[in-house]
Amino acid sequence: MATKHEQIIQHIISLPVGNKISVRQIAKHLNVSEGTAYRAIKEAENIGLVSTIERVGTIRIERKKKENFEKLTFAEVINIVDGQVLGGREGLHKTLNKFVIGAMQLDAMMRYTEAGSLLIVGNRVKAHELALNEGAAVLITGGFDTEDYIKRLADEKNLPIISTSYDTFTVAAMINRAIYDQLIKKEIVLVGDICTPVEHAHYLMTTDTVKAWYELNEQSTHSRFPVLDGKNRVVGMVTSKDIIGKERDFPIDRVMTRNPIVVQAKTSLASVAHMMVWEGIEVVPVADESSTLKGIVSRQDVLKALQQIQRQPQIGETIDDIIKNNISSDEGDKTTFEAKVIPQMTNQLGTLSPGVFTSLVTEASSRLLLQLKKGDLVVENITVYFMKPVPIDSQLVIKPTIIEAGRIYAKIDVEVFNEKKLVGKALLMAQIMDR
Predict the structure, then answer these.
(1) Which of 83, 98, 322, 400 is the 20 to 30 A CA-CA neighbour of 143?
(2) Which stretches make up the CBS domain (predicted)?
């Protein structure tokens, strides 16, 4: 039977897009406490089912697919620009396809304005009217209001008309920044994207015996299985070590390890990869806040996903992407790397940022390990020494040296030079994830 939390989430999913939601209404309708309703609505907001807007409330929105993450709803635009809704509240759940800056003559403006777009314009009432008639929403900049008949038109067409105190240029920059942030988030793989869902997962119940472990072992080739209670909550794990020497009719709940490690669907791929290397485990259960099993993620799932990420083009460029694109191997010595200090890599004083220095050291060490076909590097500990500040436009030479390297562990010493002078050192200890 579903928990109260799950019942609320399912109820929210069943509501029509654009429907207004309140804690009190949910609590009364499903006969739950307001605290339970509040937590479930917050969870629905985190997974993109609803959006909360100041002076409007919480509304059901379209849940965007991961590949459409770069599109924003009008409800999200209001939060981005600190906007106020003047009309067309019923259309806040809709997704905008593009935005048009209305800094041109009306005829030219309307050629670019189409259904599903957002016209960003100042105090030009005729432009507001024409855009709404074309099926576009309107964002009025400079804190201006509009005529009452325009608000009524927005209500009739279910198209939002929004006012913000920011100027047109600032608004466009803010929306672009939000879309860019979404693109970066799109590239971050979560456990929920790669795990085997519960309906296809292998697991045991507390009422099973050791015989059931052997049956699952033959079906799946895994040797580690989660154990669930009568409410499908993860209460233990059973491995091959646990069942050695036990009779086949021995109860599973007497051999299982209690309080096992579990992850949630929104845990990042990098985090679960590090956990698997660190703990030396091949399968981790995926559960929600109430410990109900949602799926399992295996070491093979993680490795496939890591390899897939490396083959995909990166759309949103992070600081790490900038560093990776700016570091290269020395042509004469493939174990030495070079990097130029560009403006994005500096602090407010125009010298190399300590965080970027650490990333350069880690990236060079990672590339050295890959050249030696050791595998992917997962940093366990790093100690950094800064000798001298490194000014902008410096050409750095990075020399990582492997001190020790086993099958799953490496210790690397790194020296960084600028104009043949030592400017920094690092000692890096890392786990190695076999490719």
Answers:
(1) 98
(2) 183-254, 256-314
